[in-house]
Amino acid sequence: MKAYLALGSNLGDRAANIREAVELLNAEPGIRVAEMSCLYETEPVAMADAQAAWFLNAALSVGTDLEPHELLSVCLAIERGLGRERLGASAPQGYQSRVLDIDILFYGNLIIREERLSIPHPRLHERAFMLVPMLELAPDLLHPVHQKTLQELHLALGTPEEVFLFDVLGTKTDAASVSP
After folding, report:
1. Lower CB count within 10 Å: N or C terminus of the chain?
2. What is the pLDDT averaged over residues 150-159?
3. Residue 168: pLDDT band by 50, 70, 90 thresholds?
4. Which residue spans within 47-100 are E strands per DSSP?
5. Given 13, 86, 98, 140, which residue is catalytic?
6. Exactly one of 14, 103, 127, 174 is catalytic; which is it?
7. Which of 65, 84, 86, 174 is catalytic?
8. Comparing C-alpha atoms, which of 100, 81, 74, 85 is closest to residue 14?
9. Whether residue 49 lies in the annotated active site
10. Residue 176 and residue 163 in contact, taking contact as beta carbons nearer than 8 Å
11. In 3D, which of 53, 54, 62, 49 has the Cα closest to residue 21?
């Protein structure tokens, strides 16, 4: 099955965190990383800490023999292995900074809405930091809930957070006009 994942990091060596996660995903039996987007530096959204560092984000296309819940378990184990701490219900209002975040954006055309797992990602259509990297991989992918392509969802964003193409030299390039 083809699945798409989003990776993000705003603590430590963000690029190294994402590279290591990609290597760990690719080494996992039943997962083959097919394609990775560029890295994007993105403005933090809905963070508990108003001074949170900016994220690096990327999207992956993977082939997998794992069922959705198994894929989620692998993603969570990799997050934990790289130092992710989830605070759960005791967390302050808003999202926490993290060494690594791996979200399942799509798993084929499957729609799952459960407490532990929601596919497609329930806020993907609202977030430039997920949509912009996905435009590199699958701009014409039809969102099975919203029945619009990712390109159409991106164009429909009101005032999205800032997203910049990131390179290893640390320079930013405005990615607002990124098109596949």
Report:
1. C
2. 95
3. low
4. 55-64
5. 98
6. 103
7. 84
8. 100
9. no
10. yes
11. 62
Distance CA 105, CA 30 (A): 18
Are 132 and 154 in contact by the 8 Å Cβ rule? The answer is: yes
pLDDT, tens digit, 9 for 90 and up, residues 110-121: 999 999 999 999
Is residue 101 part of the annotated active site? The answer reads yes
| Backbone phi, psi, residue 80, to 5° | -60, -45
Average pLDDT, the chain: 89
Identify whether 84 is a catalytic site residue: yes
Top pLDDT among 160 and 58 is at 58
98 is catalytic: yes
HSE-CB of 86 using CA atoms within 13 angstroms: 10
User: In angstroms, rounded to a whole number, what is the distance separating the alpha carbons of residues 173 and 17?
Assistant: 21
C-alpha separations of 38 from 25, 61, 65, 92 in Å? 17, 12, 25, 32
- Given a cut of 80, whether residue 155 has pLDDT beyond it is yes
Residues forming a β-bridge with 60 = 5, 36
Concatenated DSSP letters of 3-16: EEEEEEE-SSSHHH
| Residue of 49, 80, 101, 174 marked catalytic | 101
